[in-house]
Design goal:
This protein has about 210 residues and is α/β, with parallel strands linked by helices. Helix content is about 20%, strand content about 30%. The strands form 2 sheets. The protein has a 7-stranded mixed sheet with strand order 6-5-4-3-2-1-14. Strands 7-8-9-10-11-12-13 form a 7-stranded mixed sheet. Strand 2 and strand 3 form a beta hairpin. Helix 3 packs parallel to helix 4. The protein starts with a strand and ends with a strand.
Amino acid sequence: MKLVKYEHACFTLEEDGRLLVVDPGGLSTDFIAPDNVAGIIITHEHFDHFDTEQLAGIIDKNPDALIIAHEAVTSNIETFSTRPVMAGESLEVGSFRLSFHGGEHALIHSSIPKIANLGVMINDLLYYPGDSFTLPGVPVDTLALPVAAPWMKASEAIDFLNVVNPRFVFPTHDAILSDGGKMVVDRVIGGAAEKAGAEYKRLSEPVEI
């Protein structure tokens, strides 16, 4: 599969000429809707993962694309084709085999109610936990690792990385960082990945996984 990373939490995977788009949110300003989208995964309802303008742009070029998300998200989408899912479910969209994990967003603060969040495993290869450190419970080759958010610490990301034990890991969920901040994160978490025997790389161009 060809993996392309965009700003913040958005990335795409391409297989057999079709694309899967993950979390095209409001902070992913460099994402431009392509015309070969089979499906769109939205991990949860926060604006940096779920943006109606981004969705409209994708569906305008791909009217048959299926939006896959928890019911907390799909219940707010009236004009596009949706498929609500829950943790523990699996389905196929085009050439993509999807399984969903977790079910709950990480705690931001005790005063802020938790919301639904789904981690997703794609083609038994790439795992992305959304806004959580939910373990998939299965081997992971490629990990999309959140590295900066109000709900996390670097130590939690490193502990998660060590338990998942992927071959390859790339940082995501980092639009809140300055360029200098990204360098710090890459040094700290990248160093931990190296000690764990994983390849860590910030993606600036497409890669094959």
